[in-house]
Amino acid sequence: MIEGERLEDVEENSRWEAELGAGVEVSLTLERGGELFVIQTALEDVDEEMTRWEEQRLGETIEEADEIVDIPLETGGRQITYDITLSDGFTFEGDLLEDPDRVDYGDEEDTETEWAFEGTPGVEMGEQDTESTERDG
Hints:
Number of strands: 6
Shape: globular
Order of helices and strands: EEEHEEEH
Strand content: 35-45%
Oligomer: single chain
Largest sheet: 6 strands, antiparallel
Distance between the termini: 66 Å
Structural class: mainly beta
């Protein structure tokens, strides 16, 4: 359980622009080494949001962490989404990824070693070969 853990570090993983405003994925490192991933959307300014995380929320303790969903992963681990309340009253949803101690990826011989291409060589997917279209048409 992550209740009682303190937010030790905050980093920006990615940012984007959308019709409803900017967005950012924030990575929060917990004091015992776990990592929460938080997506913030409809922001006016990502830099201001990151400053809030660094100046106001870093060092806060997780007061409550209510599990929303627990999804098993193909690696044998799981992704747990929590509704989190910090000691200052701020709430957000965060994803915690838990990996197994050991992951068996199978034999290397079983992996695909060649790509098969069906279509016209040199023509990217979704594009038309204009020369052959003009010749045929």
